[in-house]
Amino acid sequence: xxxxxxxxxxxxxxPRPLKKGTDVVRLVDETFLAYNxxxxxxxxHLFTKKMLRPGVTVGMSLTGALTPAGVGxxxxxxxxxxxxxxxxxxxGANLYHDAHYALDLSLHRGSPFLDDTRLRAQGVVRIYDIxxxxxxxxxxxxxxxxxxxxxxxxxxxxxxxxxxxxxxYLAAREEQLGLKVPSVxxxxxxxxxxxxxxxxxxxxxxxxxxxxxxxxxxxxxDVSADVNQTAAIVWxxxxxxxxxxxxxxxxxxxxxxxxxxxxxxxxxxxxxxxGHDYFLQVTDARPDTGGLSGATPSEAVSWxxxxxxxxxxxxxxxxDSTIAxxxxxxxxxxxxxxxxxxRLGDKLPSLHAGLKKAYLARMSGKGxxx
Length: 370
Known about the structure:
The protein is an alpha/beta fold and 370 residues long. The protein has a single domain, classed as Deoxyhypusine Synthase, CATH 3.40.910.10. The chain is 50% helix and 12% strand. The protein has helices spanning 24-31, 35-51, 71-81, 92-102, 116-121, 134-147, 159-177, 184-191, 204-214, 223-239, 252-259, 261-268, 297-302, 321-335, 344-369; strands spanning 56-62, 87-90, 108-109, 124-127, 130-133, 156-157, 195-196, 220-221, 243-249, 278-283, 314-318. Strands 7-2-1-9-10-11 form a 6-stranded parallel beta sheet, with helices on both faces. The chain has a 3-stranded antiparallel beta sheet with strand order 3-5-4. 42% of the residues are buried. The model has no long low-confidence stretch (mean pLDDT 92).
């Protein structure tokens, strides 16, 4: 009776049996057909067919302990180098742990079912099933405190400027150590991909910055610059006729900081805009608890964060990021040629100036009307 219903226009579920040597593209396209596998299928197609078009600026937000698990070097670095990510907002913790790899400090696979009092007694730190020597933290702390003494850091700057400088120092250290695979911070510095941190005091990097402040360091984070620079990236992309895409890995403060660029442009600065065009999130957070991590793209429409006309181009995958991101990365690398690097990090001063000019022009016009 329902044969003619438009609800039955979707592709028929008719998978072929898996065979030895099945590649990731066939795995996603032919076997990820329903439930959250189906959402990951949709995510791969949204990312490769729309978000990675030449005129789209792609922002990525990162939460959860991804870099300790190796996702930084295995996934985020290739995405940066291929031009598939143009700017990033990350927790400070992910960037701190990323530095372990640049300093050739070892992390080890272990078990989540260990006696933590014994680990503490033996100087072993645990992140679920990742184990490493406590000295890894001490050596990384010492590196950050040492570079913060350099003249380059004796001023106020945005977190993106700070991370670019850190990336430069890490690149030099990696070259000294003969490391072939760069860290995320190094890859971003080399590709001109700006990395922001929404809560710069909430990590071991911020803790070491605070320690240096007690010693009289002139370094300070300019959090207002972060707000304006991130908004400027989105504003510039849209005013030039391009589109803005967000790839949200996890949730938390980085997700909000990335999405708030649109309310900053529309609500606070009063500039005409409609919202981000493409929204792709991987999360394990439920929407019904009211937290931002689980907030849906349709809810984001009510805030002006997502263009309502673009809701069909939004996907939320409810799964572990360490499962989804490798699949998404491998799929994209197989399906899409590398894009030309936008090098937004090099353009931050001019982007900021453009946003400021538009805002001041609007305020001037508003004053004249009065």
